[in-house]
């Protein structure tokens, strides 16, 4: 264990910090800053959070970073955490916001905060799948055209069980419908195009997404295909493929998803198995996409 070779933070001296190539005056200040943190903070996680923000910076030699890290988690055990989420950032995550609102309802007296109780919540989700998944579906505002008979049905013929048996769901209806949690001007998709890492993040409101989807759905209607026909998508996972997927569903057809990494023979096999009547694809050097009818 690496931390067994390092002293606890309260046992580190100024001279030991200096020995890492840090000037005396800087070593004195670092030692004092660490001592102040140890006086004010109790847990290793909180101590490391304060040291990371107030003491460490890239100009300090890496051995000093190691001294602080392993000294902080000296008695933690064999696997000290390499990274700890910021509490404020954790509260802004989906699971953090859910636990902030319903943590006490779901976990009772065990609940304190999203980070501390994350493992408890994970255990709760495994032990109480009916309650957990109903909670998740409610959070996502997902409604079923035909509700499931139950969340999980154990069945020896289906290893791992049957999830949501008997359910029917319309993804287009769930993604495009208005609700108390979603208005037309809400951002519903955020993305950055591949290869444009320095460009700003793009976004699309629900109203904009609806217009894009309806445009494709109406175009599909002009093909004269029977409702329920299969239409394939062989494209990279980008915003256009999301629009096409939902448009196919909205127009009453069946989506056949094909990974854009597949070889031509594999694509052909999936088209034959699914009896796809049309396929959407994209030219790699162009942002345009195309729909081809099967012969």
TrEMBL record:
Keyword Transmembrane helix: yes
Ranges of residues in domain AMP-dependent synthetase/ligase: 202-282
Pfam families named in the record: ACAS_N, AMP-binding
TM annotation in the entry: 242-263, 275-293
Keywords: Membrane, Transmembrane, Transmembrane helix
Source superkingdom: Eukaryota
Cell cycle is among the record's keywords: no
The Acetyl-coenzyme A synthetase N-terminal domain, residue ranges: 120-175
Family under the similarity heading: Belongs to the ATP-dependent AMP-binding enzyme family.
Identification of the protein by name: Acyl-activating enzyme 17 family protein
Species per Swiss-Prot/TrEMBL record: Rhizophora mucronata
